[in-house]
Automatic annotation (TrEMBL):
Name this protein carries in UniProt: Short coiled-coil protein
Record keyword Chaperone present: no
Protein family according to the UniProt entry: Belongs to the SCOC family.
Domain of life according to the entry: Eukaryota
Organism: Esox lucius
Keyword Metal-binding belongs to the record: no
Highest classification ranks of the organism: Eukaryota, Metazoa, Chordata, Craniata, Vertebrata
Function: Positive regulator of amino acid starvation-induced autophagy.
Length: 106
């Protein structure tokens, strides 16, 4: 009867050991999953921050393009005014008047 009791005890110990190993394996899997989830969340957070930074950069560049366009229009207008002013000065000055060389030679 003692052999049967010992065999039953060994069987019970094997079951407990197997359950303990299964629980250890489950805990390891849970820990691995938590670590993977944490890595994924950190990566998502990093990517979100990068996207936000790029959006701000794009907004800044867009504002700069608008400012440059406005400045360009202003400079074009000023160039037209200066060009007209120079034409008026040239037409009013005798230095830039066309002369009839044939009439002077005669």
């Amino acid at each position: 009867m003692e052999a049967r009791g010992t065999a039953a005890l060994h069987t019970k110990l094997d079951e407990v050991f197997t359950m303990n190993c299964d629980m250890d394996g489950d805990m390891e899997n849970q820990m691995e999953n938590q670590m993977e989830n944490q890595v994924e969340m950190e990566e998502k957070t990093r990517l979100i921050n990068q996207v936000l930074e790029l959006q701000h950069t794009l907004e800044d560049l867009s504002a700069r393009v608008d400012a440059v366009k406005e400045e360009n229009l202003k400079l074009k207008s000023e160039n037209q005014v200066l060009g007209q002013y120079i034409e008026n000065l040239m037409s009013a000055s005798s230095v830039f008047q066309t002369t009839d060389t044939k009439s002077k030679r005669k």
